[in-house]
Amino acid sequence: MEKKRIVWIELLRIAACVGVLGIHAGSQHFRDMPVDSTVWQVSNFYHGINRFAVACFIMISGSLYLSSKRTWDLKKLWQRNILPVASAYLFWQLFYGFYRIAVNGGPKIGSMEFFKKMLVYVSKPYFHLWYLPMLMGLLIITPLVWEIVNSSRGKQWSQYMILLFLVFQIFTYTAGRFNLPWKEHVQSLMDTVHPELVTGYIGYFVLGHYLYEYGLPKKLEKAVYILGTVMIFAGIWLCQKESLMTGKATQAFYENYTFFTFMWSTAVFLFFKEQVSKIKWSQKLEKAVCSLGGCTFGIYLVHAFVRDILYRNGIDSMMIKNTVLAVPVVMLLIFFISWGIVYIVRKIPFIRKWIM
To answer: How far apart are CA 17 and CA 338, in angstroms?
Structure first.
């Protein structure tokens, strides 16, 4: 029997999925347009405003996998959670490898050159598939982290891990984006310590659990909304300012580990948890939302293929002069075409479990 889904989480999952598409649609000409052009500035805006997506995906996973209502059996964890992700990763790495060879007029299938080319392509994640091995890593250590955050002092341990994540990852990484005095020496010192358990995406994983379980006081919640909004616009502005100064496009100030994106992602997650969750949905609409939410993993996997097909047919963020409108149009086209593919493919039970 399928577990009951939480509507606001499914809505956030959909928003994060659309956000990923926004990043990839908005950044199509991020590197090949003059940084003083309107097209680049629009690209920079869409690229930045959607940066909550990855962090929120991870926070959703943390809120669900680290929930106090769950218990973990290692055998089931590997069979039901880790192996399906590993299987999907392998399949889509091979799929995109075949696709790139085909569209680039690569070597004949079955030849030694073909296998060498495939080996090169599958040796590292395709540009968006990096998320899957990262997720596998989080799942592997989930039982250990679950024990920590759900112990008798679980709330305090969660706060401690988030604080360390802020100090050793978020603040350190963000400071590295600026030309500060003694920057290299301070970063070298921090990297020497570098407590591995809290310097990766696990910080967002635990943050999602904490916000889901405990939330924030109302005054602090409002402050997060304000600060998150200010921060992401500041990050977008700083990227534009530095790009104009250097003549080279940069996204340094709204990357996933910057304080700008940390605050923006936290604000978006909290907004869905505290505000969107209050909306009353009809049973029919609830079912539709949850069905769409269940397709987002597949949409994420297939959207790069759809984006490339559209691009090769002249449909991208510069297909019309008004880039402000072009980017959302491309996002929606990628989303609905990908959704259609996933909806059909998921009708096949084996594929639904092991590929998407």
So the answer is: 11
The CA distance from 192 to 139, in Å, is: 26
Taking the C-alpha atoms of residue 155 and residue 145, their distance in angstroms, rounded to an integer, is 12
Q: CA–CA separation, 25 vs 62, rounded Å?
A: 27
Q: Taking a C-beta distance cutoff of 8 angstroms, is the pair 261, 49 a contact?
A: no
Percent of the chain with pLDDT over 90: 84
What is the CA angle 146-152-158, rounded to 5?
50
Q: Exposure pattern of 284-303 as b/e (b: 16+ CB <10 Å)? A: eeeeebbebbbbbbbbbbbb
Q: Looking at this protein, which amino acid is placed at residue 227?
A: L
What distance in Å separates the CA atoms of residue 50 and residue 56, rounded to the nearest whole number? Answer: 11
Asked if the model's pLDDT at residue 2 lies above 70, the reply is no
Closest CA to 151 of 205, 208, 213, 201: 213
How many CB atoms are located within 10 Å of the residue 259 CB?
A: 19
- Is the CB of residue 64 less than 8 Å from the CB of residue 5? no
Q: What is the pLDDT of residue 234?
A: 98
